[in-house]
Amino acid sequence: MVVFEQVKATFYNKYMSKAAGVEKISVGNEVEIKVDLALAHDGTGPKLLEAWEKQSEKVYDGRRVLLTVDHAFPAPTPAERSFQRRFSQFAEAQGCVLYNHGEGVLHQIVAERASLWPGMIIAGADGHVATAGAFGALAFALTPEELVPVLTSGRLKMKVPELVTIGLEGELQPEVLPRDIALYLLGKIGGDLKEKAVGLTGPLFTSLSAAACMTICNFLPEAGAVTAFVVPAGEEAGPIKHRVDVSMIEAMIAAPPQPINVKPVSELAGTKINVAIAGGCSAGRLEDMQIIANVLEEYPVHSEVTFIVTPASRAVTKAMDKLGISTLIRERGAVIMPPGCGPCPGKHFGVLTEGDVAITTTIKNTPGRIGSNQADIYLASPRTVAQAAVKGMI
């Protein structure tokens, strides 16, 4: 008698099927999945409220809607302040959870203050909600207009994306950070991630912190990934399409004009910079701040460089203060911003002008992202950014 081994459903298929209320799903299926948490912020908020005013329904459950004011806080213009007041009124009227007192950037607040669990479904009006994939959440980015029906129904209509599983093994070299892994993946296999759900697995994840996992999941949408998540221990990851030995990765950098234009830092060594930016949703956690402080402890910021540091949250700032990191960073010549996005979206303080060359830990380097479209932006790890800040060059 021939015995056939039963194929175990992948973590991704299992929880997508569960959310859709069906026994199984297939790639390309039209499904309607239950959303456990909906997200938005002041960056996409104006379009969200504009779309909201065109319908008359109520938010399905305000307790499951988390909003932040993080792109421009405190308000740099009267228009931003006016919107923030309307956003607050919307949240109060609909019973939504709003953080608008400088608590921090959306994705960090979700990690610190929301209840997250493996397989939960998140939908948000931001391109980097997949940051929550570090905790096994399946988080999908929507436009503000697409989020409105989710807010009224608690459900998301979508086509099931194909799953691409990446296996990471080996140990990182001493100067290499999780951000370098993310950059490497974009440069090497980014073309295979577009419109895919990306599952991350492998022995490396037994040694990575939650912050490190957040850094990797945060950046993969820049390759067009629909979502990215770490497959929880004990769950079935599925066939591994790409295996990566991280011990072979060196410090990486994305050169203008797009995040997938990735090269080893060594290839661009000597490129002069005059602005350095670190922090925000991509690299604003405590371990990132410690790495920056370690570099600044040895050298001060270069006299021709403006170095802007943005903690991801109030909790991170508090820990920095307690450990003396804040004082060290300031005394060595850098500027610490209020918790939030910082200059990244180009809406707040620290924007670039024509001729500026910036190295940043932010998530986009397309022309005009942080101000002038005549400025150049390089994306790198917190260590590479801090090292450039003290040397005046990559």
TrEMBL record:
What the entry lists under InterPro entries is as follows: Acnase/IPM_dHydase_lsu_aba_1/3 (IPR015931), Acoase/IPM_deHydtase_lsu_aba (IPR001030), Aconitase_4Fe-4S_dom (IPR036008), IPM_dehydratase_rel_enz (IPR050067)
Which SUPFAM superfamilies does the record associate with it? Aconitase iron-sulfur domain
Q: Which GO terms describe its molecular function?
A: iron-sulfur cluster binding; lyase activity; metal ion binding
Cleavable signal peptide: none
- Give the record's keywords alphabetically: Iron, Iron-sulfur, Lyase, Metal-binding
Annotated Aconitase/3-isopropylmalate dehydratase large subunit alpha/beta/alpha domain residues: 30-232, 262-392
Q: Name one GO biological process term.
A: oxoacid metabolic process
PANTHER family hit by this protein = HOMOACONITASE, MITOCHONDRIAL, HOMOACONITASE, MITOCHONDRIAL-RELATED
Q: What is this protein called?
A: 3-isopropylmalate dehydratase large subunit
Organism (species):
Desulfosporosinus orientis (strain ATCC 19365 / DSM 765 / NCIMB 8382 / VKM B-1628 / Singapore I)
